Amino acid sequence: MNVIRRHVLRAVLIVAASVTVGTCAPVLAAAAPATGAAIVTIGDSFTTSTPVFGENAGCARPVTSWPSQLGRLATAGSIRDVSCNGGALDSGEGWTLVHQVRAAAADGGLGTGTRAIFIQLGLNDTWGASTGRAFPSVDCLVDLVRGCDLDAAAQNRVPDHTAVTGSAYADRSRAAVEYLRYYAPNARIVFVGYPEIFPAGSTSACMNILGNRVTQPRAAGWTTYIDALDRAQRDAAGLLGVEFFDTRSVTSGHGSCTADSWVGGITSVDELSSGAPIHPTPQGNSVVASALSSRYLG
Fold first, then answer.
1. Is 117 strand, coil or helix?
2. Buried b (16+ CB within 10 A) or exposed e, 94-108
3. Residues whose CB falls within 8 Å of the CB of residue 156, separated by 6 or more in sequence, listed in order
4. Residue 47 has what DSSP assignment?
């Protein structure tokens, strides 16, 4: 009887051990495939590098834009560029931030495989009581009669720089950022600043027109707005817990009318088919694309 009981007990222990091992063993389930584009870019004409005229006008994105160049540099995968000329946070009738986010999501551009979302917006928005916008209000810069000083905002010729704050920028982009976080949970969301057009703190501005340097000595209305926007983007990034890319830093010393300018003027008719005045040149876009790739996708 004792022999039988020993055999039974041994069998029970073997079965129990096998059940325990089977229960504790890790279950190896197939990982769900990553979805979405690896890179998503949202922005305005500084992002698209839309030319003044030609077949690439409108929302088409030429190969010289920084998203296009970034796509060729990045080895992380596909890029979904939904930037459009005239894009803004929430002003006007063009492609606002919400419109562009929807466009990115519409064809599966957002997902678990999205690594970085770059947003370059704000320049085309109205701010404060002024109805003026930086573009097409660039004509303020070449108005040699009235100038483009701080009083230009009250005249609705440029945005009101006093209304351009980090909290205001954050409020105008918060809903879109929360949406992106939900539908692209692994992505780094980056507010991309604007390049150096004129040095920070400038009160004058100039543009290269057909080989001649045209200077606006009273440009504080426009230049102060650009400075305020740079600070607002940086501060808003901190408030929303996203990142800020200091484009001004990587393009420093190459503003309009510098010896080695990465900002377009009107030097020839052909130039207007590859970009727009007071917008980045292909070289400037190349520098930005390389810096973004190195910092966020390297």
1. strand
2. ebbbebbbebbbeee
3. 130, 131, 132
4. H
Beta bridge partners of 183: none
Greater pLDDT, 293 or 137: 293
Q: Which of 269, 140, 275 is nearest to 211 (CA)?
A: 269
Compute the 3-state secondary structure of the chain and give helix, strand, coil in percent, each to the nearest 5.
40, 10, 50
pTM of full prediction above 0.90: no
Q: Which residue has the higher pLDDT, 261 or 34?
A: 261
**Separation between Cα atoms, residue 198 and residue 228, nearest integer Å:** 13
Please count the CA atoms within 13 angstroms of the CA of 5 that sit on its side-chain side. Answer: 2
Check if the beta carbon of residue 234 is closer than 8 Å to that of residue 161: no
Q: Is the pLDDT of residue 141 over 90?
A: no
Q: How is residue 137 annotated by DSSP?
A: G
Q: Residue 68 contacts by C-beta under 8 Å, 6 or more apart in sequence?
A: 61, 62, 81
Q: What band does 99 get if pLDDT is binned at 50, 70 and 90?
A: very high
Identify the burial level of 154 via C-beta atoms within 10 angstroms of its C-beta, where 0-12 means exposed, 13-18 middle and 19 or more buried.
middle
pLDDT at 266 (0 to 100):
62
Q: What is the pLDDT of residues 156-212, one digit of tens each?
A: 999 999 999 999 999 999 999 999 999 999 999 999 999 999 999 999 998 877 777
d(CA 81, CA 71): 9
Q: How far is CA 267 from CA 23, 55, 199, in A?
A: 75, 20, 21
Q: What is the pLDDT of residue 206?
A: 87
The one-letter code for the residue type at 292 is L
Single out the residue of 287, 285, 116 nearest to residue 191, CA to CA: 116
